Amino acid sequence: MATARSPLVRALLLALAVASLGLAALGLATPGLPSTEFVLLAAWAAARSSPRFHRWLLDSRLFGPSLRYWRDGGRVSRRAKWAASASMLACAALLVWTVPHRWAVAAAIACMAGVQVWLWRRPEPPG
Question: Please, are residues 112 and 92 in contact by the beta-carbon 8 Å criterion?
Fold first, then answer.
């Protein structure tokens, strides 16, 4: 993957990568805030701004396997699918319990259901 030529663009992409990784870390502890999407965005931005940071992400024990699975055919591990499903179920329960507007709860749950269908249709890595 080619890095951006402009130093300004590289700096902006690196800032995006670092910020995205920070949001991903925050998402691990915050219900409703996704983490996987931010890790993917961080990897994309790092690949275009800092080969060293990109390599660190790919070699990371925490992020590396999922990033490599995604890079090699949009694969998602069964464990990640179950974790995402459990997280969305917990968020749906929290919404039902705390949000008084039923239409908003229904819309959010419908979105989560759509994501679940898409996610479980993704191929899984071999093994």
Answer: yes
